[in-house]
Amino acid sequence: MDDDEGPQLVHIATLGETHLPAKLQGVAVILKIPEAVNPATARLADWIALCSDQECALITASMSTNGEDLPPNGVDGFVSFDMAADRALREDFPDMQIIAADLRSRDAAMQAGEMGADAIFFGDLRANDSAGMQASLDEGLAEWWVEMMEVPCIVPVHSSEDDPDYAPEFIAVPLG
What we know:
By secondary structure, the chain is an alpha/beta fold. Helices cover 26% and strands 22% of the residues. The protein has helices spanning 44-53, 83-92, 106-114, 130-135, 139-148, and strands at residues 8-14, 28-33, 57-62, 77-80, 97-100, 119-121, 153-156, 170-174. It has an eight-stranded parallel beta barrel with strand order 1-2-3-4-5-6-7-8, surrounded by four helices. Helix 1 (44-53) links the parallel strand 2 and strand 3 (57-62). The longest helix has 10 residues, at 44-53.
């Protein structure tokens, strides 16, 4: 990606809560799946079809507190909140994109990259809103990552018009 183009847009949505749009503008949707939501009745198949039609990657993020769920059929990837525990999934699903999240240090981010993460999400993806995601964003860590590492990063921002000075590869905003 040419730095002059700016970061690519990633949307964040919550299954069963976020209204299914008619069109998407970003390159990916991170779809948070709450533990109490049944994917079948919450229209996961409609999200899969929309992303496929719009040529937008669909990445699921299980909000289960009982460990990670396997990614549903038809999605392009998943969020790992524990790359060490999910290391085997890299081998089981080699074509899926894995986004490592909930990383609070350089060491944790580097380890996730070494374990096969395709991108790193800085900020609290489990937060209920954009402000919560951004409140935990360590911009110094994200800036260091962009300057030093090849694995792309995703940072939450206020709006799709935001373009942080340190030029992350992807910015994330809630869909809605």
